[in-house]
């Protein structure tokens, strides 16, 4: 039997002539056992057991019907007509007309005629001499003839090859095809494009398509006959997960002067900044041009960190715009050019093509691509849509910082961004309180948590919320915390121990954040739940927030949690809380559904202000000021900070 969908990943039409003969015999009313003996040759294989013969025949009938349904859809035929069983199209003749079986025994006892030849002979002799035919029988005759016509049409197209314009419904399982179509993948061309653009995990863009079904689809696309028929190939990154990519797959593309990633961007000699009009004298950098200067600036930060990715993105956008749009070297830009770039960020994706073309050389569609495209994909673009106001300000602040550093290294004569006063560094006074939870909303989150089953998920969520809320740590800082970062101290005039935790923030700067007693208790409880009886026995490298062990997979209760996973855990939790909110309180539900890890950082700051915490303390705890990397503090200042942190203790308690 040809492979089915579950075996091969497609319902590629692979019906043979004997399958069509089998199905025509079924429509003619011949018993399945007789058809199995004639066409399937299963008796010998199955030891002559008639019951097994019948079971195989029924399975074959179901498979053939499913294949014919898909083929009918691909050819534009009436698929429902194929499904009609012979009982629904029973033909009743007059008493003088023999049945088809009796006619076969009389005229073809040795079965030398094909089914169609026998039917044609029968119609030739009795078709016009059947006065007993009624309207229902005439209707059934017409439908029966249409059935046969569809079968002949499909049989002629049995060896048809797929093409890029074919609908996915014509080649894939109907249920799978519907899910692909719901995600906007209607043709095989769009399907191949999705695999090549999004890589191995393309199926995550299609609801209810899992890794197994995705692999089966890709396996079919990789067949030599499929590739030859379609004329396109699946890219290597669509075949294997990212962690299994070979070096060749991740190698940069050929250098070109176009909208491409920074590592593939070729800057023309006349625009590379070697002789920029804003170049300084006696530079402390060995960089010969703007591209190399940017690389030195990025190399100052930890490789692979979120900071490097963010800064590279902004420098990349700015350099591409400077060379391709402004037609200037980055080291030749003036204040007016920086203002132009600010306006470029604001209007990108917001103007009609006609208005955009009046002020810009490159169409805005060329700057914007789909979300999630890998950097080495031909469809990669530096923007994924219009930037929010906060994203625009962040972009300009990063670029001002880069240009200022290049000026300090005397690579540039001056920083043109300095003339834009709105880029002055914002303090905590400018905190976006719309992205923080009110006290009432925070109490709502706590109440929902306390109603959850007290399992591993509950204890981890409880600890994460208490720690993030009471410390204001960033996402990357939270997952980096280890038990060795905890230490105790004693306040002046007191004997009880207080606790603080060392946090390494941006720029590899370390700060000490005081912990209120409630959070310390949560740490003890969470470690105890993970099997640690005493802090003294916990290794220093044990993560404060751990991943849940997966049954059947190697792992321990102390395996670290990644930043992306922590983000997903909290997003999913806030979404659950939002769904639990009364439908009448739509605004609260919508706000909670948008909440994420960073919202807890803002919530810490806003609640601290409302509870009388000084702005200086908040800025220090958030890492907004430069703190010494030593642990020596004036006792009175440490006591003051720890006292202020206790003001949030009530809300940090679960």
UniProtKB/TrEMBL annotation:
One Pfam short name: Phage_integrase
GO cellular component, one term: cytoplasm
Origin species: Noviherbaspirillum pedocola
PROSITE patterns membership: TYR_RECOMBINASE
GO aspect biological process, one term: DNA recombination
Name of the protein this chain belongs to: Tyrosine-type recombinase/integrase
This protein's record includes keyword Ribonucleoprotein: no
Residue intervals of the Tyr recombinase domain: 432-647
GO molecular function: DNA binding
